[in-house]
Write a structure and sequence with these properties.
CATH architecture of chain A: 2-Layer Sandwich
CATH class of chain A: Alpha Beta
Strand content of chain A: 35-45%
Helix content of chain A: 25-40%
Structural class of chain A: alpha+beta
Order of helices and strands of chain A: EHEHE
Number of helices of chain A: 2
Distance between the termini of chain A: 9 Å
Radius of gyration of chain A: 16 Å
Number of domains of chain A: 1
Shape of chain A: elongated
Number of strands of chain A: 3
CATH superfamily of chain A: Phosphoribosylformylglycinamidine synthase subunit PurS
Largest sheet of chain A: 3 strands, antiparallel
Oligomer: homodimer
Chain lengths: ~80, ~80
């Protein structure tokens, strides 16, 4: 079965996020001052070929831990949807 | 009211995504060969202060169009959740 994984990798809440700060300033400069608390991370989508959802979850988790996220600075989460 | 926006900005489907290609190769190199079709984009979260959900949607859409996404190369989508 194929599963589509939607992965978000975001800077840890405890850390400053200079890119988010820059976006917040940019939004203020174009007149959108109702926006605050901007954080910028990565969004990764991928297709996983696995026997069942548990196996696909294990693969997605390993991909996040070993390649996509730096656990010192980033937190990740993902959702899996079976493809038709 | 405050709304939390979760925004995904992804490369257009019609375009090659070299960063996704690099991640796919990296995953194969660490033994995760069941993964394909990797695409890498941005995930942005922000808090919007607005009178109602329609107003918050308008602000989020403007932020995407004017600052966060380059419409030539990227597509965006977002969800809004009211904060307690």
């Amino acid at each position: 079965m194929k599963f589509k994984a939607e992965i978000d990798v975001m800077p840890q809440d405890a850390l400053l996020d200079p890119q988010g700060k820059a976006v917040a300033n940019g939004l203020k400069n174009i007149g959108l001052s109702a926006v605050e608390n901007v954080r910028v991370g990565k969004h990764v989508t991928l297709l996983i070929d696995a026997a069942d959802k548990t196996a696909a979850e294990a693969i997605a988790d390993e991909a996040c831990r070993k390649l996509l996220a730096n656990p010192v600075m980033e937190a990740y989460r993902f959702t899996l949807v079976e493809q038709a």
